[in-house]
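Appendix B. Extra example for self-study. Work through it before the problem class; the solution is given directly after the inputs so you can check yourself.
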Amino acid sequence: GIQVEQSPPDLILQEGANSTLRCNFSDSVNNLQWFHQNPWGQLINLFYIPSGTKQNGRLSATTVATERYSLLYISSSQTTDSGVYFCAVMGGSEKLVFGKGTKLTVNP
Amino acid sequence: ETGVTQSPTHLIKTRGQQVTLRCSSQSGHNTVSWYQQALGQGPQFIFQYYREEENGRGNFPPRFSGLQFPNYSSELNVNALELDDSALYLCASSPGLANYEQFFGPGTRLTVL
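Solution. Structure tokens for the complete assembly:
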């Protein structure tokens, strides 16, 4: 089945810094989503981005489907950005396959 | 518009017991997927229901079963609970299959003692 790798596994930033999270996948996809998991476990939808570029406030994402990767950019980090960020893809089946996540800690 | 809801929030069971988790899909969504998330891991797909029929299953044993009702809400049943079933169970709904964004509920945290 399709494999999803996220990097880095852990990231520690000072408030105000910028960061880039990467998601590599092993096969073509027809669905790619980025999520932020808060401390209570809720998965918050950030982007639905099987291809192209999207922006939402301080966050933006780019998926280059032909090269099988996606990037999530966080600018001017805030402490509330802390948590785990997941990339999930859907290939030939109907299920989302998740990476192991990037744990982001933003210190004041 | 009401989002995806799940009940209960937390649950403690003992090994060998049976448990039922519930999920109400977002308005207008006919597809529900269930995921299990062990501590420190990404969610793993259990199965999906589309218009009351199972439409795909992950690598989980038959003691994991489910239902979808005419209003598209869903249940996840786990029989003969094992310690390794302790996890966060997440339900997601979408307005269709494949190329639609999935939206997740807050999850049910199951502890098996």
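Self-check: DSSP finds no helices and eleven strands in chain A. If your reasoning did not lead you there, revisit section 3.
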